[in-house]
Amino acid sequence: MKKIVAAVALTLAFAVSAMAADTVVYPAKNGNVTFNHKAHSTKLECKVCHGAGAPAKIAIDKDAAHKLCKGCHADKKAGPTKCGECHKK
């Protein structure tokens, strides 16, 4: 029984660490914004956010996030568009 519990715990630990690798947290004064890269990359082409060049880390500041992220959510009528839906304290 102990081996089964240990195996389940280990499996959960690997699953949580794999999910964490796909998630980025952007700090903000009015609450951090959590971004799930994997969820977005299955719905959008890389160039939508990263531009025409090779995918690379992109600089996100307040203005860029509101224009890129919120703008895309509003255009597609999918995803959060209100402050408290992204910013969590």
> Which consecutive residue ranges, at least 5 long each, have pLDDT under 50?
5-20
How far is the N terminus from the C terminus? 40 Å
Round the mean pLDDT to the nearest integer and report it. Answer: 81
Helix content: 55-70%
Radius of gyration: 17 Å
Query: How many distinct domains?
Result: 1
> Which structural category do the helix and sheet elements fall into?
alpha+beta
Number of strands: 3
CATH architecture: Alpha-Beta Complex
Instruction: Please outline the major beta sheet.
Output: 3 strands, antiparallel
Reading off the top of the CATH hierarchy, the class is best stated as: Alpha Beta
Strand content: 5-15%
Give the neighbour order of strands across the main sheet: 1-2-3
Structure annotation, total helices: 5
Order of helices and strands: HEEHHHHE
Structural features:
89 residues, alpha+beta, Cytochrome C3, 3-stranded antiparallel β-sheet, 5 helices, 55% helix
Short description:
With 89 residues, the protein is an alpha+beta fold.
Structure characterization notes:
The chain is of the alpha+beta class. It has one domain (24-88): Cytochrome C3. The protein has helices spanning 2-21, 37-41, 46-50, 62-76, 83-86; strands spanning 23-26, 32-36, 87-88. It has a 3-stranded antiparallel beta sheet with strand order 1-2-3. The protein is globular. The termini are far apart. The model is unreliable at 5-20 (pLDDT under 50).
